[in-house]
Amino acid sequence: MSNGSRIEWTDATWNPTTGCDRVSAGCDNCYALTLAKRLKAMGLAKYQNDGDPRTSGPGFALTLHEETLAAPYGWRSRRLVFVDSMSDLFHPGVPLDFIRRVFDVMADTPRHTYQILTKRSKRLASLAPCLDWPPNVWMGVSVENDRYTFRVDHLREVKAAVRFVSAEPLLGPLPSLDLSSIQWLIAGGESGHNARPMNEAWVRGLRDRCRAEGVAFFFKQWGGRTPKAGGRELDGAFHDEMPALREGV
Predict the structure, then answer these.
(1) Residue 227: pLDDT band with limits 50, 70, 90
(2) Contacts of 45 by beta carbon, 8 Å cutoff, 6+ apart
(3) What is the pTM of this model?
(4) What are the chain's domains?
(5) Do 213 and 189 touch, CB atoms closer than 8 A?
């Protein structure tokens, strides 16, 4: 578990799995692949299977971490927790039984709020009826360009307390995006050596639609060579809206 996450919209990260592989254009400059290689070189035991390309394509080996499952029980203070920042819980290599065990831990620790994000929206929709969805679990999908707005249709089938969209890295406008039954949208530009630029009009369009439809809007970054290179202001203001947390959290 990582305390004090640098991700602006969460407090901490929890990785019961690590590893993933490419499914769409948003994965081309994956931060997790770069970080996993660095952590492996540093000798971190959890990442010794990671950082190696899979034969199926760009990515790094999926690993289940049984020893990490119980970690949230030891966190006394309430926090927002991003689940699998270094992986995808709905990757086809993660068995349903393991996903259920992750959900059991989240249900058993209601003082925390958990944020899950996936690009595997079809598998999410197919498995969602097999899972119990506690009120402290938020579920999101990544949408990097208009080709992948169908992921939001799959998300709408999920009975999560909060459904959200991560438009990061935002690689194009999203005219087909339907925000009905969505409570939160995160937008952000790509970062890293090969970062692709983000058009201001794309971000403004999302902000204005969120305002019109009552969806919380969070602008994470413009991106660039480093995540903070372009700053976080949009039209001279920060946009840090979040869905309403449950009472007492």
Answers:
(1) confident
(2) none
(3) 0.91
(4) 77-221 (3.80.30.30)
(5) no
